[in-house]
Write a structure and sequence with these properties.
The complex is a heterodimer of chains A (66) and B (139).
Chain A: H1 5-8, H2 19-23, H3 35-38, H4 42-57
Chain B: E1 6-14, H1 20-36, E2 40-60, E3 63-79, H2 81-92, E4 97-104, H3 113-124, H4 127-138
Antiparallel strand pairs in B: 1-3, 1-4, 2-3
Classes of the chains: A mainly alpha (66), B alpha+beta (139).
Chain lengths: 66, 139
Amino acid sequence: MHKNYFKENRIEYVDYKDVETLKKFLTPHARIQSKKRSAAPAKNQRQLAVAVKRARFMGLLPYVSR
Amino acid sequence: MEGNTQVYELGYLLLPSITEDQLEGAEDALKKAVSAAGGTEIASESPEKIDLAYTMTKTVGVSRYVVNDAYIGWVKFEAEPSAAAGVKEAVSKMEEVLRFLLIKAPRESDFTFAKAREALIAKEVPEVPNGEAKAAGVE
């Protein structure tokens, strides 16, 4: 993963509808990557976690995979 | 009133059993629910069909809907925090709404499903001529 994906792509707000971006931060089992793996700053990691959970609720991302 | 408002986003999933021509009516009903509660619409995107990542169910009266696809759409609006509660209650009573998500959101809509689709197509299109060129080069 990039050094800071969110800063490089100028993403100020992590939208739950942006599935393509969120997918980059999921493991093959559809779990949220640890901050160690995602290399995202704490603020972005928190935004990411909320966005992924919202996307799951709306059926855009799975809760579990495989 | 001015300084007290907050921008909200209402994302929703509509049951796939409603037909294409009923879709507009359902969208209008949602927008009416927003304005009736005192919200001012800022932006929106019309519902479109998606495949769900997992199976969802909704029980309406005695019938139980088990669905694998749904129409997804959203409305962004500005309202006072007390009005948002009214929107939540009104939408939760709508039978054609499978699920909905009422969240605080930034005013700008950087992401739309239409833009995302264009980006996906733009990504795929240049690959095709390249693939052909490679294939031609090999021959």
